[in-house]
Amino acid sequence: MTGPQLMPGAVVPPLRRDFPLSRMVAYAGATWDWHRLHYDTEYVTARGLPAPVVDGQVLGALLAEQLQRWLGPQCVLRTLHFRFAQPVFSGESVVCTGRVTAVGDDGLVTVEQRVEVSGPRARTAVATAGATLTLTPPPASPVGGGPS
After folding, report:
1. What are phi and psi of 47, to 5 degrees?
2. Rounded to whole angstroms, how far apart are CA atoms 108 and 120?
3. How far apart are CA 111 and CA 114, in angstroms?
4. Domain named MaoC-like: which ranges (predicted)?
5. How confident is the model at residue 137 (pLDDT cuts 50, 70, 90)?
């Protein structure tokens, strides 16, 4: 259960994501979160912001996605925590990074993560983030190789 990629210090492959306004509107529709802060450029600029703000829960979902893409369907997130440091705005790109900090005898893996905004206004968007996870055994193959 603790293969070589799950050793303390192992680097989680980065996950990159762009946030065009169209993606943000699609997310608002999928979650029924129609606060104008997340899609209305006039509304946010009148309040001194440079562009609509990416919904913070998207960043948490990216942290979970990063781990699940890395470890596959056997990855079971047990806990996820994150703290916002700076907002992410429409038109920006982020990269999620992480590393394994501990692997317990019980198979519990602890990962430390971050979300960084890349580009001209590079900054940390989410710090003090991470997860604990376990891996479930892969399903057994059918005897005889499957249906005939």
Report:
1. -105, 15
2. 38
3. 10
4. 23-105
5. confident
pTM: 0.88
Q: How far is CA 92 from the centre of its chain?
A: 16
Element of type H or E holding 100: strand 93-103
Q: What is the pLDDT of residue 39?
A: 93
Q: Identify the pLDDT of residue 145.
A: 61
CA–CA separation, 120 and 113 (whole Å):
22
Domains of the chain: 4-20+54-137 (3.10.129.10)
Q: Please name every residue paired with 117 in a beta bridge, in sequence order, or none if there are none.
A: 94, 123
Q: Using CA atoms, how far apart are residues 79 and 99, in angstroms rounded to an integer?
A: 16
Comparing C-alpha atoms, which of 61, 67, 119, 59 is closest to residue 87? 59
Residues 39-55: what's their mean pLDDT? Answer: 96
- The answer on pLDDT for 110 being more than 60 is yes
Element (H, E) at 70: helix 56-71
